[in-house]
Amino acid sequence: MQHDLVAAGEPGRQEVLATGTEDPTAPPRPQVERDPALDAARVGCVIAVVCIHILMVTLTADPASGELRSVLVPTRQSWYWWATWIFQIMPLFFVVGGASAAGAWRRRRAEGMESAEYVRERALRLVQPAALLWCAFALGAGAALAAGVGPELVTFALSGMGMALWFLAAYLICQAVTPAFLALHERMGWVWCWVLLSCTVAVDILPITTGEPWWGLLNMVFVWPLVQQLGFFRADGWFAARSRLTLVALAAAGYALLGVCVASGDYAPDMLTNLNPPTVCMVLLGFSQASLLEVASPALARLMRAPAARAVAHVVGTRAMTIYLWHLPVVVAVMAAWFFAGGHDPVPGSAAWWLLRIPLGLVCWVVVLLVATALRRGETASVEPWGARPLSGTAVFLAVVCGVVPPLVEIVTWLNMPLVVAGALGAVLAVVVLRSGQVHPEGGQTRGVGSGPPSSRGALRGPRAGGHGDIDRGHTPAKRR
């Protein structure tokens, strides 16, 4: 099947039939204006995550035993807890993703796409590059063990490289529930948010009352989809309709409630601890960040007009998912190479240690960008099915489960050899299932908006014109000022 079919939502292009000819009856596609503030926020989040993890990874020798150990230096600083209130930006990531997902699904829904077909395409955008990472972990760890590297050292390395995998589970869940939760959002508005918030608080109570923290993993299906709902409100223009003073007051109220939660003693004061399992603190932080994002939107839009900012957005944005997936393996590898090569090993947290982060951080970024450029094809790979076989919504659901479970388990067990193998098998199986066919509309007829299948409209090998990668794309709704 041809790969020159246009992607849904691409501005300025007309529908193309499966034969490669334009449908003369298809109306011109509306021009979709991008939201530069969302682009800036998305790229800023990716850059912040990489920089923070560079600071978090320090390999040093234990003074007493000489054994290799990892030190999370920032967590030892007195200022760490309040710094996380500023730099814990993962809720903002889901707000941005929600705003983009709302526009993407509404366009596809208007074209007649089935919700399960939308989930199939969006899941593939995550699972295909993730499968490459899981397989690399499995092959690399297996080769290390075969070469005589001790299993303890292999597990130690894997645990550091896999710290960010939880995001795959959370984001896949959010993509899977987008059609249903957006429909509930359109029908119920803030009432649906209160329902999700009630579920979040109920789950938070379980670890508090039972003493078992992993009950909190149930909040993976409540917290992050709830934060994503805030992105839906941004897409609708709800935040844009408020004055700056109101938005600042809303953000302050969110932080104040966050302070109340921490003061109760039931929640940790640092927002990294509240990240996994996620708690209501992430919701409050996300609400404040969504409000402040709207306050900063005019400034971010002006920033994105600068050539340098656009260049950074292009370089990072077109590789965003690949950068996110591969940055920790690269950072761990760079830090390990420095340590084993006998590089300077200052006392963690000392002035010399902080100064050393500058050159090491630059090296990490160079290698991350090189790796992301080399592996970017996995991020931009086609989601077009390999055949015309009809795929059921149940099959899509089970494939998503295969992609969600291993990174979800990683939160509890950390990454280890058995989990790496399970993750590789699950991701590959998910890709095979999701690429094996497509979900047809009711009646089993292949439609055309033109008449190309829904998956063919997303079959561009690269990002859409003017886009910044395919984690999610933000667009300015008509009612946004």
List keywords for this structure.
disordered N terminus, mainly alpha, single chain, 481 residues, 1% strand, disordered C terminus, two-stranded antiparallel sheet
Q: Estimate the strand proportion.
A: under 5%
Give the proportion of residues in helices: 55-70%
Radius of gyration: 23 Å
The beta-strand count equals 2
What is the arithmetic mean of pLDDT?
Answer: 87
Domains, number: 1
**Helical segment tally?**
16
Q: Strand order across the biggest sheet?
A: 1-2
Largest sheet: 2 strands, antiparallel
What is the overall shape?
A: globular
Protein name: Acyltransferase 3 domain-containing protein
Keywords: Membrane, Transmembrane, Transmembrane helix
Domain Acyltransferase: 36-369
GO molecular function: acyltransferase activity, transferring groups other than amino-acyl groups
Short recap of the structure:
The chain has helices spanning 36-56, 80-87, 90-110, 115-146, 151-161, 166-188, 190-210, 223-236, 244-263, 280-303, 307-317, 320-340, 351-375, 377-380, 393-413, 417-435, and strands spanning 59-61, 68-70. The protein has 481 residues and is mostly helical.
